[in-house]
Predict the 3D structure of the following.
Amino acid sequence: MCGIVGYIGNQDTKEILLKGLEKLEYRGYDSAGIAIQNADGVHVFKEKGRILDLRSIVDESCKANTGIGHTRWATHGVPSHENAHPHQSTSGRFTMVHNGVIENYSHLKREFLKDVSFKSDTDTEVIVQLIEKLVNEGNKVEDAFSQALKLLKGSYAIALIDAENEETIFVAKNKSPLLVGLGTDFNVVASDAMAMLQVTDQFLELMDKEIVIVTKESVTIQNLEGEVVSRDPFTAELDASDIEKGTYPHYMLKEIDEQPLVIRKIVQAYQDDQGKMSIDQDIVDAMNDTDRVYIVACGTSYHAGLVGKQFIEKMANIPVEVHVASEFSYNMPLLSQNPLFIFISQSGETADSRAVLVRVKELGHKAITITNVPGSTLSRESDYTLLLHAGPEIAVASTKAYTAQLAVLAIFASVTAESLGRDISLDIIQELGIVANAMEVLCGTKEEMEQIARDYLATTRNCFFIGRSIDFFVGLEGALKLKEISYIQAEGFAGGELKHGTIALIEEGTPIIALATQESVNLGIRGNVKEVVARGANPCIISMKGLEEEEDRFVIPEVSPMLTPLISVIPLQLISYYAALHRDCDVDKPRNLAKSVTVE
Ligand code: F6R
């Protein structure tokens, strides 16, 4: 949430910053700003709205060699010009961008900054004012920076410039992602490598509470004790085309279409030299040692966890609980003797999940993270990582990461089952190949999906998704997809549950999307459809080949019953996409949301 960039060098600073912010816009998009610095001083341009709005107010003729920029997802204070970053100290000497949440900002204001008149409602302004105060008290800027950071409680990624020093960007992070990128005669700062791939693919990872001094020629990292730390850069393994839309109108549609390829990549990545599925032996051992698995995740990743529980329990016969991360600390279950935690997170940065991970590590338990982002916070702080290999997911609504999570969980469960000597009678490589082919077929049904969106969702206020057994979990994901991008009130229910209350909401024409992919519950779900039809609902039944009936609106190809969530979700993703499109919604950047939710 929120994206930061910084540049120091001889190229067109303002353009590099703006291009970088465009790449980070998925992290937050309610306001944006840049500060660029030249011999005349620091020039701040900021605006409520998107990067496009910011571009329109930036003075084209303003040349500079140093600059910082920010795209915001509001936490403290409404989206407005005043609350947009960068923020400046009273004298204008210091200018800062910040991602994260400073929990003790009110206390710091009261304790140290009583006489300061604040221009914004943000926690960020407190930090920049604090630095100015410490400098006014006689501290060198570097010392003031580090002293101020020591007073902060919470999360931050920060870039600071000083009007009296055109040669330096001061950088630090704690619990929020931030990287420094390296170039010849320039260096950069970014929340995500993809923002600066335009100028470099060499990056330095930063650790929490380090202080980093970035100049055109050098990057100096200091640890908490003030000692200089040396660190090797890594090459960002991102292809610039991975982060472009290409000919697609939206990232979401591109990412939906990428799903068959992602599944094939995952199969390749987890195959050993003998062509068998394989995962790190330490992870297999951890699974063999545990008596209960606790899956912790949020949103779409939580929905993947619900399906993952079925995979692990049915294949490996290990009990699994699935928990929403944001509730875990309050409703912490009684843990088993040898618990093993699995965190599922596309971004690997989700603050709610990380808070649980920190607690789990304090308790001395082992944790695996399943993530799309190598080197992300959750990955670094867990004992083991399983990567999704889905490539960057940029649309806020998660699609390919969800199916990648399911594929990795299926492989993980099958490898664990094999290590425990269980015969699952499922050739997972072959079955995932069938899944990838079925996905391709489904990605070719866009016109039909667009028609379904028109027929059922063009004007409706609400929509219910029902399913039984594993279809129920896919229904939850379908409902989340639809509501987050089309703003139609959509809810997923277990087929049998509707009559216990929610059926009261069914009116003439209420759309009900029912999934019928499981033979074992086929009669049950069809009975539920009859109940809602009797009350005026407009049913859209999506069934699987072999189970179809005349009344069905769409039939998905046949795959192994356990793996149906990987494909039955695709029609739901596409229907949501077209519903949002028809309602003129901003598909890739839905209101109030942001990718990578780094606040609790
Ligand atoms: C919905 C969506 C969110 C995320 C959730 C967790 O389309 O993307 O619900 O799934 O914010 O994010 P990660 O997986 O990055 O932890």
